[in-house]
Every structure is written in structure tokens, then in C-alpha cells.
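pls design
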């Protein structure tokens, strides 16, 4: 686990392009979808969620997200109970001055409590989570992004780019939430419904590819998918690779966006 202050995050062309996309969608019904896409243009990710906290000891308020179904089913547990076990508290404490931004890198090995680590890291196959905490005058804004296996951990260059984007993006997301104050809840679909969406929207996928993709979207690991479908783990990975090639995508996050919005 590594904690650091964000002091010099350059505004690259990719960061500014992503930011302009978000600003262009400000106030629209699909702004949350475009926020996720903007983040994903910096580097491939598998989930993101943004929350705000006026009190670090009280439950966070979810204001934007794109979360796979397996985790979405547990987000209420996180928002009410497990947030107290999240090491994000260290970053919130470090972001003590107005305008400060702090980044925390967290891997499964950094979570000591099994009850929290198992559903949110182990079962979700998370390899690393980045948490960006920005202090405003009256609250903290937190953006979490994560990658799942077999993707690698985030590179230092990717972290720098995400840090730069977070400084621009978090105030915009917070303002969007003020304009649309309805409580955010993860959108949850069952595996069969997701399979039907793949069949309708992407008929080029084979039945087995649709089955594997649907289980990837809800957060099942390759091992769990293999057991569920009674096929080998290698076959699961092959079907997923073929589907990604057909759909011209490279991550589970992009896959979820195709059918979850």
C-alpha cells in the first residue's frame, strides 16, 4: 500500500480530451456513462465509483459509478459497514487542506480483514485499486478505480494521468450530483438478462461467448465461470479473448459498458 500527495500532475492531451468529453455531457442523462468512458480512455480499467463524505466516520454517499454485478450486489454492505475497514481512511486523513489531492494504491495483500477482502478483492479478482481523495472546504471527494486479473497493476505513468484527470473530474462529478440529487444505486442485472442483451445487440457472438461475457460482466472469475459452465479455465479464457476481439474491446469494463447502459 502506497500513499502520496498529488503535486505535479501534467495536463496531457489525453487527459484534456477525456475532460472535454465529460464537460460536453454535463447535465445529460448519460453523463455517468460518459464519465466511465472518459476514465477508460486514459488506460483500461474494470470499475470506478465516486463518493463524497462530509464526515470520514459516517457512510459515504455514492454519486457516480460503473460497477460489475457481483460487486454491485455488495455495495450497500460497503456503504453501510465495510467502509470503516477500508484503508481509504488514511488518504482522507492525509488530505487535510482545502484543495489537496492524495492517491492511495491498494492491493488485496493490503487488506488484513478477510471478511472485507474476500468479496471486494479476492472474489472480484482485483489486482489493484487506485483511490484519489480530493479535499474541498466542506467535504472529501473520492474516486476509486480498479483492475481485475489478468490485467496488470497500474503503471506509474497511468497513475499520474489518472491523478491529473481526477483533479479536474471530481468537482464536475460533485456538481452533477448536486443538480441531480437522487440517490445513486448500482444497476444490477441477472446473468440471464445480460446474456439476452448480448444475444440481441451482438449476434456475432457464439452462445458460449455470450455465456462467458455475461459472467465476466457480473464479476465472476475465470475459475467460477468454468465451474458454472462445466468447461475448462483455458476454454473460458479462449472464449473471452475471441469475444473481445469480435467486439473490438480490451477490458471487462468496456464489456460492461456495452450492455449495462
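designed seq:
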Amino acid at each position: 500500500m502506497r500513499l502520496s500527495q498529488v503535486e505535479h500532475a501534467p495536463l496531457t492531451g489525453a487527459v484534456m480530451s477525456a475532460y472535454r468529453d465529460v464537460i460536453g455531457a454535463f447535465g445529460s442523462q448519460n453523463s455517468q456513462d460518459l464519465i466511465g468512458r472518459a476514465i477508460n480512455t486514459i488506460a483500461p480499467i474494470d470499475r470506478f465509483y465516486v463518493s463524497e463524505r462530509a464526515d470520514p466516520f459516517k457512510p459515504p454517499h455514492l454519486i457516480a459509478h460503473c460497477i460489475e454485478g457481483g460487486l454491485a450486489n455488495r455495495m450497500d454492505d460497503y456503504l453501510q459497514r465495510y467502509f470503516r475497514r477500508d484503508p481509504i481512511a488514511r488518504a482522507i486523513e492525509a488530505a487535510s487542506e482545502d484543495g489537496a489531492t492524495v492517491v492511495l494504491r491498494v492491493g488485496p495483500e493490503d487488506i488484513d480483514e478477510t471478511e472485507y477482502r474476500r468479496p471486494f478483492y479476492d472474489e472480484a479478482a482485483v489486482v489493484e485499486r487506485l483511490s484519489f481523495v480530493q479535499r474541498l472546504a466542506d467535504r472529501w471527494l473520492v474516486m476509486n478505480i480498479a483492475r481485475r486479473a489478468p490485467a496488470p497493476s497500474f503503471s506509474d505513468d497511468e497513475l499520474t494521468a489518472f491523478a491529473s484527470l481526477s483533479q479536474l473530474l471530481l468537482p464536475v462529478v460533485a456538481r452533477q450530483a448536486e443538480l441531480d440529487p437522487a440517490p445513486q444505486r448500482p444497476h444490477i442485472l441477472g446473468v440471464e438478462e445480460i446474456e439476452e442483451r448480448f444475444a440481441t445487440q451482438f449476434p456475432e457472438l457464439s452462445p458460449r461467448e455470450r455465456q462467458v461475457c455475461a459472467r465476466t460482466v457480473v464479476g465472476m472469475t475465470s475459475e467460477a465461470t468454468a465451474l458454472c459452465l462445466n468447461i475448462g479455465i483455458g476454454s473460458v479464457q479462449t472464449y473471452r479473448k475471441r469475444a473481445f476481439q469480435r467486439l473490438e474491446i480490451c477490458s471487462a469494463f468496456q464489456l460492461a459498458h456495452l450492455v449495462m447502459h
